[in-house]
Amino acid sequence: MTAPNLESFRRGSMFDASFRRSNMFDGSFRQSFRDYSYMFEDNTPARCCSYMYLVKKSKGVLVRAWEMGTSDPRKIIFSAKMGLALTLISLLVFFKLPGSEVSNHYLWAILTIIVIFEFSIGGTFSKGCHVGLGTLSAGALALGTAEISDMTGKCADVFNTASIFVVAFLGTYAKLYPTMKPYEYGFRVFLLTYCYVIVSGYRSGEFMETAVSRLLMIALGASIGLIVNICIYPIWAGDDLHNLITNNFVNVATSLEGCVNGYLNSAHYDLISVVDTGYRSAVESKSQEDTLMGFAAWEPPHGPYRSFRYPWKMYVKVGGALRHCAFMVMALHGCILSQIQAPEEKREAFRNELQKVGLEGAKVLRLIGQKLKKMERLNPIEDILEEIHQAAEQLQSKIDKKSYLLVNVENWEIGNDGIEVSNIDEEGLISRKLDYESHKEAALLPRQTWWPPFLLSISSIMWKSESADLSLATFASLLIEFAARLENLVNAYDELCDIANFKEAFSG
């Protein structure tokens, strides 16, 4: 066996090395290296720990906080009131209240202020009442349990432990009952107070002192919280409920006009999306109205609401009637967003009647909203629904006269058994369809195409043509239904005026 030629191996290795060195700096290698340079680049976004990222986020938070404060200055005032209340209770603690046992439970006064201090006066009263009832009932039950445990002698530990389990079980199960849901916070305070008195009193041997000290601290914290919240720029839930429903009238009226004008003017799909912000405020405000009504029921007479047991439920009833009308506006908005639209020529035939109903409906909503804002009755001499009822009747009469525009009358002729698909001229039908569609619709409704490419068939053209005609009838019928629902709204408002003793309307 011959020995390997080491000299040739060395020459080959040297040649390969020199070749690699020579090509490392030529253009082709640099170009190929540049092509894969992205593998070594750090394209990850700015990390949370980076300085610029923190500065950017901090600026965003400050801007949003400033916008929130300027949009509703009451939030700044409420925050200042919370700080003042906590400062006052802290000063009392620092100056050492008389009685060492009471001073040992100062933390409960601070917790009480933090817990019951709500944005509105009604919310503060509601939370304060729940705290007081929960504390009193739990303290009384804990004292009774302590007396019984003393009689058990050596079994006191077992008795106290078992009592905590039984009370926690019954209290938690009771708060899950549907009618007890508004009092859930009171049950939480009840359980917290009971366990605290039992455990602390057992360790110190002074159940009575523990219960009384906690009650005094809670009363002190609740008193300071109520005084600060009521005496310094009070925020009333009743005013918020009144303003909420008043603004909803204006928003629904604006959305109604926008829907009618957008439908008649062939509004663009994206441009009409701003219409839903009006009626959504009324549709989605039910939970907010219920919450404000619950808080307003706790508030004493104030401002224009000078009677006890003010009919806040009637405000919610008026809001519900308005929401019933807003659902029709939502349906009208859905007609505009539909993929199948009636030709503009047919919509023009009903323009005046449709626009009249929309304008009169918005006029009625704005009038009731203005009357509610001023807390005035409707004028008994004038019928505010007369104009819109006449407009609805005119629209219905126009539909009856020109019903042939809303259906395909060729299929309803006597002796016509229908059109066979095999006998239809496909090219002629498609050409007639294209001629029927106006150039304005093609420009303004790019996303509402009549015939998608994958559905360009004879059967799809036939049923879509009929559906396009019926879409106009749907829009008109929804407007007529809206006009009919306004009567319930007016009746609900009249009932509110009678119960709340609104002032008479000024003539002229």
Automatic annotation (TrEMBL):
Query: Its membrane topology, per UniProt?
Result: Multi-pass membrane protein
Alphabetical UniProt keywords: Ion channel, Ion transport, Membrane, Transmembrane, Transmembrane helix, Transport
Tell me its family.
Belongs to the aromatic acid exporter (TC 2.A.85) family.
The protein's superkingdom reads Eukaryota
**Under what name is this protein listed?**
Aluminum-activated malate transporter 9
- What is an annotated GO biological process for this record, any one? monoatomic ion transmembrane transport
Q: Which Pfam families match?
A: ALMT (PF11744)
Q: Which GO terms describe its cellular component?
A: membrane
Write down the species.
Answer: Eruca vesicaria subsp. sativa
